Amino acid sequence: MNRAQRRAAAKAAKKDGNKELSEKIFLFNQLPDECLACARAFDKGDRQMVMEWNVVIREKEKIVRLYCPECWHKAKKLVEQLENK
Ligand SMILES: [Zn+2]
Predict the structure, then answer these.
(1) Neighbours of ion ligand 1 (CB under 5 A)
(2) Which candidate among 26, 37, 63, 77 keeps its CA 20 to 30 Å from the CA of 16?
(3) Whose CA is closest to 53, among 65, 21, 63, 25?
């Protein structure tokens, strides 16, 4: 590999990384500002909320769903109940 090839490869790698990052930022910007189930307000700037709330990302469809901890818990319980039937 000569110097020009090396530079081209590095450039390509950097480009890919940036693409992935911009995709993540795009999805983050798509974050709803309320719980999908109960419409409780969500504050993106609140670290605690960001940690506790549940985000479901469907990258293919570019759909982002957001659930507050209570609704997430309820949904999980419902699924468990259905599975135990
Ligand atoms: Zn909720």
Answers:
(1) 35, 37-38, 40, 68, 71
(2) 63
(3) 65
